[in-house]
C-alpha cells in the first residue's frame, strides 16, 4: 500500500513541476503579445557595409521614404535607386537617378526628396514594373537597390549594387 502512494506522489511532483513551467511559458507569451501584437517589424538593413538606412516608411501610394547615408569611405557618383517588392533583382530600367551627380562619404540623401521622379520619391513596384497598390496596414517585404560608381572609377566600369532588405507596415501617405 505504501508503494502505491509513492507512485501517486511521484506523479503529482511531475505534474506540478511541468505545470509551473507551462504556466511561466504562457505568461511570457502573453506579455510578448501585449508588447508586440504580431505586426511586421519595421527594418531597413543593407546586406553589406557601405550604406545605412534610417527613418524609413512605406506609404499607401507605394512610396518608400528613407534617409540613406554613404559610408563607403569614398565619394560615389552616378547614384540610382530602385525599390522592388520581393527579392527579384531589378533590370536597369527600374532604377531612378539621384538628382545630385555625386555623394561624398558621410553625406545622405532622402528618397522622399531629390530623386528623379516628379515628387522626389521612390515608388516601389513589382519585379515586372507593375504597381503594387499597397493598402494601409499591409505588410511590405522588399528590397532597396542602390547602383553607383566610385568617383575615381573609369567610365567603362559597370555600377556596383548595394541591397537593403526593407520590411514594414504600410502607413498613410501620398
Question: What is the C-level CATH assignment of the largest domain?
Answer: Mainly Beta
Give a quick account of the main beta sheet: strands, pairing sense, barrel closure: 6 strands, antiparallel
* Fold-level CATH name of the largest domain: Immunoglobulin-like
Strand content is: 35-45%
Instruction: Using the 3D structure, state the CATH architecture of the largest domain.
Output: Sandwich
Helical content, roughly? 10-25%
Total domains:
2
Q: What is the H-and-E element order?
A: HEEEEEEEEEE
Secondary-structure content class: alpha+beta
The Rg value, from CA coordinates, equals 25 Å
Number of E-state strands:
10
What best-fitting shape do the alpha-carbon axes yield?
A: elongated
Describe this protein with a few key phrases:
alpha+beta; four-stranded antiparallel β-sheet; six-stranded antiparallel β-sheet; 174 residues
